[in-house]
Amino acid sequence: QVQLKESGPGLVQPSQTLSLTCTVSGFSLTSYSVHWVRQHSGKSLEWMGRMWSDGDTSYNSAFTSRLSISRDTSKSQVFLKMNSLQTEDTGTYYCARTGFAYWGQGTLVTVSS
Amino acid sequence: DVVLTQTPPTLSATIGQSVSISCRSSQSLLHSNGNTYLNWLLQRPGQPPQLLIYLVSRLESGVPNRFSGSGSGTDFTLKISGVEAEDLGVYYCVQSTHAPYTFGAGTKLELK
User: Fold this and answer.
1) d(CA A33, CA B105)
2) Do A94 and B41 touch (CB under 8 A)?
3) CA–CA separation, B78 vs B65, rounded Å?
4) Residue B45 carries which DSSP code?
């Protein structure tokens, strides 16, 4: 069945770079796109960007040039890299498939020294 | 960016009651390809969001048919015909017609 699972460090220091991995199963990254979505505690959801099935990417300009999304189709993985982290980047990060039909469980990232 | 305004922010209901949630967009969500990319999600406490409705009114597989969606252009509604205990949580509308994709602020459904 379709599954997505986020992984990465739970704690990142301010000004450092966040690296997250979304490992998918049950579908091919060359057939479906994957979104990254962030949620601050108790708040709504924020779309960060998308890896399209053809390998193209789209980003929310709110993240300017801090954000990069890439993939390794042979490993069924999509990667998120975001630099210059600040405390306001603390939150739960989700990956989700096309149409927001399937979501990972999310990974909590805390930015703190 | 497209702003999605959800009302009400909080909804108190009894089991069996029918309720509606509104989602209004700051611009039309009709895509040039003829589709309207407006979905409804439910997030239960401690869980990731779950897709309920896609393309305004299409029921996601496995979702009970007490959920229904309607609307067009800038005005959309999610209706629950007969709330059940498992329906409690926060409901979000999300649009993916215009990048950046955006979510409503959420409507929390509570038991009265």
Assistant:
1) 24
2) no
3) 12
4) T
Chain B residues touching residue A46 (CB < 8 angstroms): 103
Q: Which two tokens stand for residue B77?
A: 């509604």
- Please return the burial class of A53, using the count of CB atoms within 10 Å of its CB with bins 0-12, 13-18 and 19+: middle
Beta-sheet strands, E only, within B1-112: 4-7, 10-13, 18-25, 38-43, 50-54, 58-59, 67-72, 75-81, 89-95, 102-103, 107-111
Q: List, in sequence order, every residue forming a beta bridge with A39; answer none if it has no partner.
A: A45, A92
CB nearest B101 (choices: A47, A105, A106):
A47
Residue recorded with tokens 């999610």:
B78
Cis before B48? omega within 30: no
DSSP state of B98: S
Provide the chain B residues 46-85 that lie in CB contact (below 8 A) with chain A. 48-51, 54, 60
Inter-chain residue contact B92 with A47, CB threshold 8 Å: no
What is the mean pLDDT for each group of 10 consecutive residues in chain B (112 residues)?
A: 97 97 98 97 96 98 97 98 96 97 97 88
Cα B62 to Cα A107: distance, rounded to the nearest angstrom: 26
Exposure class string for B61-89: b at 16+ Cβ within 10 A, else e? eebeeebbbebeebebbbebeebeeebeb
Q: What is the pLDDT of residues A58-109, one digit of tens each?
A: 999 998 789 999 999 999 999 999 999 999 999 999 999 999 999 999 999 9
DSSP state of A103: B
